[in-house]
């Protein structure tokens, strides 16, 4: 029989082994140093308390199975830590996954010792739920900018909506109800209920392919809604409506042409200002039904169903699922404390989910402190204010991670109901909070916020094995209520003293405080200015000399940069994005040439010709991103005197459909380490002087479908470790010089169906570790496996190429 004390030596040995592994890896690798230091701190805290006052005996007094499992986990944790130095710096996805493992290791250490340390250690959850909280479904964009009209997926857990679902479904299917409205405060499950209905088999059987889903933001116009329907559901990309009336007539004609089959139009999250939009979309067509979700009541329009809050039982279920996702995770949290926490959330599903996540694996003291904060607000705030207070508690839980809190508040800088590029966020955070430029530690904050349900991080590719090198394609979504919370918390100080200044302009109505501004400058570091379709670029002067990051959110067809940015001498990040259906024609771009400290410039969905030349004069620019931009022939006629962009390290050109050639001047960017030219379907050639990019480490060319070959000079890129030519359909051969890439470790080439053979020089790629390709190409590589001992051929399925071809078509 094994005694309890028999496990003392193995436990101590495993614990010390993990400590030594962590200490050695902190010295050996910089990639995970932040996380390793976090684990080291946890281990030191446990060590200082574990061997005092007989606590080790208390640990060993646990059930034998639990003690053995934890020893096994410590030993595996040691193996995980020792692998840190083996993860290659270029393998972004493996770094991403390994960071999750380290976070979970820290979490498990804290969880196991929580009972012994609860009086001495304020336990903080740093875990990551890899079971679905980080990765959600991806909706492809087809031919336009905004998200598609395809019905989004459902959350993993749905609580308390069954009765509502049955009733709304009954009302929806009645022939005499043309408009059905589901109304409730924010965060009550209206959107989830609408998606449940759209995914219901009976509903799909009745409406078939005629279910259209549109999220209606506060500034959405009738033209925009109809344009989304035509562009994203019918794939009619050439339609442009001059007036709302024209858009309305065309939509009505389209629905009538569908014949007798029933049609369902879902308008999600309609604001009170958009009541007329619902009226305009009503047509006297048999079988045509509109389902509206809104925080507001539109009793004069149609049948309204009031969505009630969760009852105590369902509310408790939802909070417990969020706070205790795994059986046995609930440690020393009494029932009455859980019940009080449920009551403070007042049945709001979002509040229950977010509060539960913020308390996951927290100490009893943390639960009590959170309950006290919530209880203090009950007599002061009304119902919606209480919800804000409830949600604020989840932000207050970040008190030990002030940068994570700031990162959450920064999310209010972006428009409602739009995807936010993870790359755009990290560009800001690198500058504002002095984080690493490689993004390894920066993405920790995305993971942290995602684990607390404060945002949703959506990975770019469904197949995780294909994610190496694609962090730039991830994006973030956020619930409207959480965005409101970020804006609310960012707007507590007087305007002149705010750390982040978030400005929304409707029409040409400049805020009064702006017009009345005198000589007193504004101290903000982050400024966001959002304008709508009718804004005519009439600007007043604005003094904000300390601005380091500027976000301009645009919807109009023509937009002129504000003249006052030329005085933003400390500006380091500039993000200009158009959220309209078509690229915005950008004027006054030469103003940016006067910004001496600009480091990162992101231009998205803009027409840049011909003023793009002014970008090349930015001597201190380190990263340039041009996404879905119209470039015209501006790059081909590049006339900037050398050196052009002498400090540029990263260049990203994505989905710029009119890019045909890369100018030879690009080859003079001798500090460039990352070059990404992707989804540029008109690109036919790369300059022969390409090999002059001697410091290039990562080269992405995927989905450049007309690119016919790689230049012979590519062999001079001896620092290249990652090359992606996947879905380059027109490449028929690789140059012999490919074998001179003696530093190449990863080659992605799935979908290169024109490739008939490989040059024998590939046998010289002695450091090549991974070739990611389709089955057909894998046969070409199989001849060389004996020559390349470390080579691993990863075969991907063909469906990704099929989906890609649908988008191209």
Automatic annotation (TrEMBL):
Gene3D superfamilies: Helical domain of apoptotic protease-activating factors (1.10.8.430), P-loop containing nucleotide triphosphate hydrolases (3.40.50.300), Ribonuclease Inhibitor (3.80.10.10), Winged helix-like DNA-binding domain superfamily/Winged helix DNA-binding domain (1.10.10.10). Pfam families: NB-ARC, RPW8. SUPFAM superfamilies: L domain-like, P-loop containing nucleoside triphosphate hydrolases. InterPro entries: Apaf_helical, LRR_dom_sf, NB-ARC, P-loop_NTPase, Powdery_mildew-R_dom, WH-like_DNA-bd_sf. Residues 1-151 form the RPW8 domain. GO terms for biological process: defense response. One of its GO terms (molecular function) is ADP binding. Keywords: Leucine-rich repeat, Plant defense, Repeat. PANTHER family: PLANT BROAD-SPECTRUM MILDEW RESISTANCE PROTEIN RPW8 (PTHR36766), POWDERY MILDEW RESISTANCE PROTEIN, RPW8 (PTHR36766:SF32). Belongs to the disease resistance NB-LRR family. This is Powdery mildew resistance protein, RPW8. It comes from Helianthus annuus (Common sunflower).
């Amino acid at each position: 029989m094994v005694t309890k004390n028999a496990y003392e030596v193995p436990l101590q040995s495993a614990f010390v082994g993990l400590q030594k592994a962590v200490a050695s890896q902190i010295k050996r690798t910089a990639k995970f140093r932040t996380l390793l230091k976090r684990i080291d701190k946890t281990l030191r805290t446990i060590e200082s308390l574990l061997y005092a006052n007989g606590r080790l005996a208390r640990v060993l007094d646990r059930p034998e199975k639990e003690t053995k499992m934890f020893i096994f986990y410590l030993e595996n944790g040691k193996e995980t830590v020792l692998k840190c130095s083996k993860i290659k710096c270029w393998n972004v996805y493996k770094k991403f996954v390994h960071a999750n493992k380290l976070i979970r290791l820290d979490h498990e250490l804290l969880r196991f010792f929580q009972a012994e340390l609860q009086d001495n250690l304020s336990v903080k959850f740093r875990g990551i739920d890899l079971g679905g909280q980080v990765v959600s479904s991806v909706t492809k964009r087809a031919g336009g900018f905004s998200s598609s009209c395809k019905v989004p997926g459902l959350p993993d857990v749905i609580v308390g909506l069954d009765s509502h679902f049955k009733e709304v479904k009954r009302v929806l299917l009645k022939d005499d109800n043309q408009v059905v409205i589901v109304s409730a405060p924010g965060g009550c499950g209206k959107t989830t209920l609408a998606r449940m209905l759209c995914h219901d088999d009976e509903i799909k059987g009745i409406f078939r392919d005629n279910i259209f889903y549109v999220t209606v933001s506060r500034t959405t116009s009738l033209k925009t809604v109809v344009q989304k329907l035509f562009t994203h559901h019918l794939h009619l990309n050439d339609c442009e409506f001059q007036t709302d009336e024209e858009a309305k007539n065309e939509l009505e004609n389209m629905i009538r042409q569908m014949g007798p089959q029933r049609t369902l139009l879902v308008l999600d999250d309609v604001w009170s200002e958009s009541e007329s939009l619902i009226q305009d979309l009503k047509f006297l067509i048999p079988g045509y039904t509109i389902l509206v979700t809104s925080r507001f009541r539109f009793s004069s329009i149609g049948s309204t169903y009031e969505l009630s809050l969760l009852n105590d039982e369902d509310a408790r279920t939802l909070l417990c699922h969020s706070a205790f996702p795994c059986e046995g995770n609930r440690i020393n949290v009494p029932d009455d404390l859980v019940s009080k926490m449920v009551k403070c959330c007042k049945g709001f599903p979002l509040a229950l989910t977010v509060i539960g996540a913020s308390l996951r694996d927290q100490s009893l003291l943390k639960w009590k402190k959170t309950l006290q904060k919530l209880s203090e607000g009950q007599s002061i705030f009304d119902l919606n204010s209480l919800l804000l207070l409830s949600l604020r508690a989840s932000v207050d839980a970040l008190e030990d991670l002030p940068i994570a809190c700031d990162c959450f508040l920064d999310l209010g800088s972006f428009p409602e109901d739009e995807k936010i590029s993870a790359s755009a966020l990290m560009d800001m955070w690198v500058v504002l909070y002095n984080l690493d430029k490689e993004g390894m530690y920066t993405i920790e904050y995305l993971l942290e916020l995602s684990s607390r349900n404060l945002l949703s991080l959506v990975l770019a590719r469904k197949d995780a094995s294909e994610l190496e090198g694609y962090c730039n394609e991830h994006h973030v979504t956020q619930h409207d209520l959480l965005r409101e919370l970020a804006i609310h918390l960012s707007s507590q100080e007087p305007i002149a003293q705010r750390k982040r200044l978030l400005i929304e302009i409707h029409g040409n109505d400049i805020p009064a405080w702006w017009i009345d501004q005198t000589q007193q400058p504004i101290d903000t570091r982050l400024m966001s200015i959002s304008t709508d379709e009718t804004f005519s670029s009439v600007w007043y002067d604005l003094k904000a000399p300390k601005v380091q990051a500027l976000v301009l959110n645009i919807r109009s067809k023509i937009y002129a940069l504000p003249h006052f940015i030329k005085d933003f001498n400390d500006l380091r990040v500039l993000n200009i994005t158009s959220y309209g259906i078509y690229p915005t024609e950008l004027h006054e771009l030469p103003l940016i040439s006067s910004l001496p400290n600009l480091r990162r410039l992101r231009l998205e969905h803009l027409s840049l010709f011909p003023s793009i030349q002014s970008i090349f004069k930015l001597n201190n620019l380190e990263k340039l991103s041009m996404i879905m931009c119209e470039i015209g022939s501006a790059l081909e006629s590049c006339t900037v005197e050398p050196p052009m962009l002498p400090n540029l390290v990263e260049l990203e050109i994505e989905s710029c459909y009119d890019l045909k050639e890369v100018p030879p001047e690009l080859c003079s960017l001798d500090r460039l380490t990352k070059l990404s030219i992707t989804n540029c379907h008109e690109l036919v050639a790369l300059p022969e002087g390409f090999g002059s990019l001697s410091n290039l480490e990562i080269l992405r060319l995927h989905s450049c479908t007309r690119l016919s070959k790689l230049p012979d000079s590519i062999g001079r890129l001896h620092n290249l470790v990652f090359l992606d030519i996947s879905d380059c359909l027109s490449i028929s051969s690789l140059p012999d010089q490919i074998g001179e890439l003696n530093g190449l470790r990863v080659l992605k080439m799935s979908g290169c169906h024109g490739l008939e053979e490989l040059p024998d020089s590939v046998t010289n790629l002695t450091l090549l570790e991974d070739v990611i390709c389709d089955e057909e190409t894998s046969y070409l590589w199989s001849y060389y496996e004996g020559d390349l001992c470390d080579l691993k051929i990863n075969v991907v399925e063909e469906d990704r190429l099929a989906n890609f071809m649908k988008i191209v078509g």
